[in-house]
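Figure S7 source data.
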Amino acid sequence: MSLIPKSHPRAKSLLIREKLVFGFDHGLVAKEGLLAQGRGEAFDYLLGEKTGKPAKLAIKAAAAQIMLAELPVISVNGNIAALCAKEIVRLAKQTGSKIEVNLFYSNEKRKNAIVKTLKKSGAKVILGTNFSTKAALSGIDSARRIVDKNGIFSSDVVIVPLEDGDRTLALRKAGKIVITFDLNPLSRTSQTANITIVDNVTRAMDLLIKNCKKLSKKNEKTLEKILRDFDNKKNLSDTINEIKNNLTKRSRNA
Ligand code: ATP
Ligand code: MG
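Tokens for the predicted adenosine-5'-triphosphate complex:
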């Protein structure tokens, strides 16, 4: 039970923190994951803690891209498992995506805790845990180069929420189409991915599932048009302008 009153002006943000701290206490989240959340929160503040128009456009494009994919894979780390395990399982079921656990700070114990959480949320098959199906992406030094042969390695589209810049680049170099969620429009991940959803993953994941459901009734041509009309670089500039406008308004009222 949470001790945070609903009426608290920062209740939502505090509840997210509570989930991460719970995840940390239960061995899912790395210390560094708590810091990453802090960096994200600062940008969320600047975005007005809401899903803006550019984010909505990116979510729609991401849904079209996932519906067009042959083998979409969702890459899960500790923060994502702590924040939206249920939504990950729902997204995978809705779109036929595979789920793979992939950690920057690799640690078997933590991996097992993440698998347990995903299973509790209804996941049946979780990749990234089988030693015999390990494969390595080239052009990356960290443990994150290790992926599952039947998952990320053979995927065409990878959904990587809260990813690190080096790995996003490695995935792109490996020919993958990368969809990311990142509150920081300036990060290397945001700038490198094919589709960047600049929004809090706790708000955007549900919207992505809804968009995938809606687009599942559309034909390929319609989906391809949605993708053609989307420009990630322009969308990122629009997001940066949104931040700028928010700050201008606030500076007037300061
Ligand atoms: P990069 O390596 O891509 O340049 P970085 O090193 O600045 O990014 P990391 O610590 O590698 O940042 O990754 C964490 C990223 O995840 C941050 O950019 C942060 O904005 C984002 N983030 C953290 N929590 C959330 C959240 N709840 N929803 C969306 N994004 C988040
Ligand atoms: Mg980084």
